[in-house]
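Re: your question from the hallway

Yes, I did run it. Sequences:
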Amino acid sequence: MMLLQVLVLVNLVGVGERTVEARYAADSSLELSAGDVRDLLGVAASTPYISVPDLARAYPAATFTWLPRRLALIVDDPRAVLPASQAAQAALQRSAQGVPGFAYRRVSGMYGAVAADDSGRSIASLGYAFRGLVTVEGDYLPALHRGQWQAALAPVPQVSLAVAGDRAVASAALRVAAGPAFAFATWQAGVVALDVLVASHGVSLFASTRGALLMTINRAPLAVQVGRSGKSTTARFSFGPSPVSPFFLPYIPPR
Amino acid sequence: MLLQVATVLQITAGQAVTQVANPSREPVTVTLALWRSLADTTAPAALVSPAAFLLESSATQTVRIRAREACGPAWRWVATLTPLAAGPARGATLTLVSRLVAKVSCR
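Structure:
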């Protein structure tokens, strides 16, 4: 039997959308091809086509709204139970990790501050931020007769560079978050530190030259972390609606 | 009547989205097609989704088109609107079928 083909805009809210070729099944339910379901929602199917009611049954926490007059399938996944939502959240977490604070604001202008404490120390700051792309700032400490400066550059959300110093460059930091990888390198007083994270299919591996190693498995709403720092190994099992950050080792307060 | 379909169908990178509206008081059946030109009414290789449907009064339907061959500037976008009879007819009935032919712009 010839099934009716239909072009459908599939929108995974907050993640992305694409127009795909779907079809109406014999019972008039909408069916998406397994390839499109894998690409858009990250869900692997064992059959060539999977119906929207079957997807809704498999992921009851997500809402699948078929709008035939708009030829649109709206997939709302606020709990991030779909693998594509989890991957998007993880990518957002990686791209936001270590971003300079000014990069979130798209306004330009001068800024400044004066602070003092009851011991007589004070600091005056003056800077300029340009559209969340560049910021330069100078600070002066009158009691020490010393000035310092810092500059930061975030030309694209995936890359940022920050440099600070006084009469010479004292520290620098470079952050790159591209695709499944994240790297954060710092240099201060001649010492270089490097943090690297690689993620794939909900499994993240974080390593730092500061002696930290962490593996995180996020399978919403569950997460497992195993990390090693110094001479201690820590494991953590957690549950909840928010994914666990793969950048921070589980912490247990000392006795 | 002209507000029922777009006067120009814009096909960008082989894909297009357009609307068909029914501002009348009666439901209409709509059939949609692409022609190669005004002189050649054969359909180019393209998926029109949906190609035929019923549109109630004041309703709007989104239509998506995916061309499977290179878009031609002579193509025409053809919408045929047939009003449905409100009830059983008594005596002779005159049905006005509208066919709107729009230009296709390729990008």
